[in-house]
Amino acid sequence: MQKPTDAELEILQVLWQEGPSTVRQVNDILGRRRDIGYTTSLKLMQIMHEKGLVTRIEDGRTHIYAAAVAERDTQSYLLQEFVDQTFRGSAMNLVMQALGNHQEVSAEEIEAIKSLIAKMEQEQNNRPS
Amino acid sequence: MQKPTDAELEILQVLWQEGPSTVRQVNDILGRRRDIGYTTSLKLMQIMHEKGLVTRIEDGRTHIYAAAVAERDTQSYLLQEFVDQTFRGSAMNLVMQALGNHQEVSAEEIEAIKSLIAKMEQEQNNRPS
DNA sequence: AAACATCTACGAAATTTTTCGTAGTTCCAA
DNA sequence: TTGGAACTACGAAAAATTTCGTAGATGTTT
Questions:
Q1: In chain B, where do the E strands start and end?
Q2: Which nucleotides of C are covered by protein (CB under 7 A)?
């Protein structure tokens, strides 16, 4: 997988969230957060197209862009890199820190983790030693 | 906190792991993983010193560098940024994905998470609504 | 003491990423 | 039918990061 740069990831986020969009639409959304010229967004999306990070179809004289990579896959990929770089490969340390930092965990979320844990314990038991 | 670049983080990792070290020592360790010139490491560490990411003391004609920022603090900071950028601020999604990706979770680690979860549930109950 | 190795400082090249200006085209409204 | 608004393509400037060469000082070996 081609690793997206920070600016590219920002655009992917918009496409994942909003679905297929024109440069104008993406630029408008980015513009809410920070100053960014139209041609800057355009150029980025053109580069992303070359790299295969997005697809695009013509719609009249404009283009409609869509993410070509799945959000989950990209997150996995970046997560792996981040764990290696920042937590020396220890996903557990990352998890513990993430859970520890964010006190505001809802009951539902806790349940979700618990069931995931339960699943992992099962796998533990079924694993041939 | 000054955000370390990728190369700077790599050096911080060495200093955290090995403790105070000379440029030579850091460079040797980095050199195991990839080609990197001595003066490259030197320059990076000088820059980090200017930025306040490391401290250094003279020892004869060489310098001994030490991390000036705590590993935990830096991880927290970078984690927060990463969650925002990559998981749109949802630490839970990150946690779920991290747990899901890495099947190889030891029994001890599962216990650690469970007790953390238990602690969080307590806080939940004690929280004034 | 001469040759050599090793250290710092520092400028600057090289690379990567981000940003934007300009040119050319097309659409639409006055 | 003319002028302006919006679009793409593209080169290149700007900014950020990484890499390294060279110079000068100091220690070490023969």
A1: 54-59, 62-67
A2: 6-12, 16-22, 25-27
CB pairs under 8 A between A and B: 123
Q: List, for residues B18-70, the tens digit of each pLDDT value.
A: 999 999 999 999 999 999 999 999 999 999 999 999 999 999 999 999 999 99
Q: Which helix (H) or strand (E) holds A58?
A: strand A54-59
Half-sphere exposure of B35 (CA within 13 A, CB side): 0
Sequence-distant (≥ 6) Cβ neighbours of residue A48 within 8 angstroms: A4, A8, A11, A12, A54, A65
Residues of B in contact with A96 (CB under 8 A): 112-113, 116
Q: Is B87 near chain A, with CB under 8 Å? A: yes
What fold, for A1-89? Answer: Arc Repressor Mutant, subunit A (1.10.10)
Q: Structural domain boundaries of chain A?
A: 1-89, 90-129
ipTM of the modeled complex: 0.90
CB atoms within 10 A of CB B70: 10
In chain A (129 residues long), the average pLDDT of successive 10-residue segments reads 96 98 98 96 98 96 97 97 96 89 72 80 70
- Stated as kind and residue range, the H or E segment containing A123 is helix A107-126
Q: Per residue in B69-83, pLDDT tens?
A: 999 999 999 999 999
The pLDDT score that the predictor gives to residue B127 is 66
Tell me the chain A residues in contact with residue B121 when contact means C-beta distances shorter than 8 Å: 110
What residues in A contact B17, CB-CB < 8 Å?
Answer: 88
